[in-house]
């Protein structure tokens, strides 16, 4: 028995060691980011892998002013919150209708949405800009939110669709017997049960929208509308790259979403597991 136990322990220890090494590999970019964010420009160029010998905290103050960080933060916050609310609200209702009314039209629509998940964004950039421009919302926060709603709907509906299948229909039927309308059944019975997948969808979409650079760069041109990724990119010119300011700007930009992720990460596995494999 002891020999068998040892045979199981050795592969387990090797697996844990491999996972630790893999985690360290993924943490290396964060080391370079944090270590170089408090160095002078010359120190970054001379040896970017070395620990800082003198902490130049003024980099953060200069990056804060150069990016107009409070304004860029507010822009990113408005876009992220509004996009998440619309995606969660509209896609949950759409997925619920597709599951409970399993008509040919709804099945085709669901298949089309799932198929859209494999289309790379680069393939639809030009049509997207043309549509946003045609709607008259180019270079507006509303236009950017609308673009996120359209591009984020397929994945969001997919997750909600799988989760709704796990909701017992008997609960809804009992609600209807008590005289509840279809909308009342959804908002009072079904929506509260969807809390795990709603939180998961919000986390995943927040990580995507907050850090996205390409979509805002296509739709927003006015400096006052810049989100954090666009504001940070201003440090990279054609001939100069202000690494001593860009790196602190990146740290400032990712800190809110990292804190948000750490606070909400316990919901991710539960929500994805229930939303992707059920039914």
Average of the residue pLDDT scores: 86
| Percentage of residues in strands | under 5%
SSE order, one letter for each helix or strand: HHHHHHHHHHHHHH
Q: Please state the overall shape, judged from the principal axes of the Cα atoms.
A: globular
CATH homologous superfamily heading:
MetI-like
User: What is the C-level CATH assignment?
Assistant: Mainly Alpha
Distinct helical segment count: 14
Helical coverage, percent range: over 70%
Number of domains: 1
Under the CATH scheme, which architecture would be assigned? Orthogonal Bundle
Radius of gyration: 24 Å
Distance between the termini: 41 Å
Strands, count: 0
Largest β sheet strand count, sense and barrel closure: none
Oligomer: single chain
Structural class: mainly alpha
Give an overview of the whole structure.
It is a single chain. With 279 residues, this protein is mainly α. The protein is built from 14 helices and no strands. It has helices spanning 2-36, 41-46, 58-66, 69-100, 104-116, 125-134, 141-164, 169-177, 182-193, 195-211, 214-219, 228-233, 243-264, 266-276. The model is unreliable at 275-279 (pLDDT under 50). One of its GO terms (biological process) is transmembrane transport. This is Carbohydrate ABC transporter membrane protein 2, CUT1 family. It comes from Paenibacillus typhae. Keywords: Cell membrane, Membrane, Transmembrane, Transmembrane helix, Transport.
């Amino acid at each position: 028995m002891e020999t068998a136990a040892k045979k199981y322990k050795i592969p387990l220890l090797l697996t844990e060691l491999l996972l630790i090494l893999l985690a360290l590999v993924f943490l290396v970019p964060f080391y370079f980011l944090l270590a170089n964010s408090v160095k002078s420009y010359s120190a970054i160029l001379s040896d970017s892998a070395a620990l800082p010998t003198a902490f130049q905290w003024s980099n953060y103050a200069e990056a804060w002013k150069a990016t107009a960080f409070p304004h860029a933060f507010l822009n990113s916050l408005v876009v992220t919150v509004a996009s998440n609310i619309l995606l969660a609200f509209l896609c949950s209702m759409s997925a619920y209708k597709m599951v409970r009314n399993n008509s040919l039209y709804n099945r085709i629509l669901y298949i089309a949405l799932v198929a859209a998940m494999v289309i790379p964004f680069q393939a639809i950039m030009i049509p997207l800009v043309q549509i946003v421009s045609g709607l008259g919302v180019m270079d507006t926060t509303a236009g950017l939110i609308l673009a996120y709603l359209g591009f984020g709907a397929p994945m969001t509906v997919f997750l909600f669709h799988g989760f709704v299948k796990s909701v017992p229909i008997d609960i809804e039927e009992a609600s209807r017997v008590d005289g509840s309308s279809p909308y009342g059944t959804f908002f009072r019975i079904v929506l509260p049960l969807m809390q795990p997948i709603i939180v998961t969808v919000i986390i995943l979409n927040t990580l995507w929208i907050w850090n996205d650079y390409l979509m805002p760069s296509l739709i927003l041109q006015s400096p006052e509308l810049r989100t954090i990724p666009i504001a940070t990119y201003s440090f990279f010119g054609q001939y100069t790259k202000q690494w001593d300011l860009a790196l602190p700007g990146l740290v400032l930009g990712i800190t809110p979403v990292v804190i948000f992720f750490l606070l909400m990460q316990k919901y991710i596995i539960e929500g994805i597991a229930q939303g992707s494999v059920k039914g």
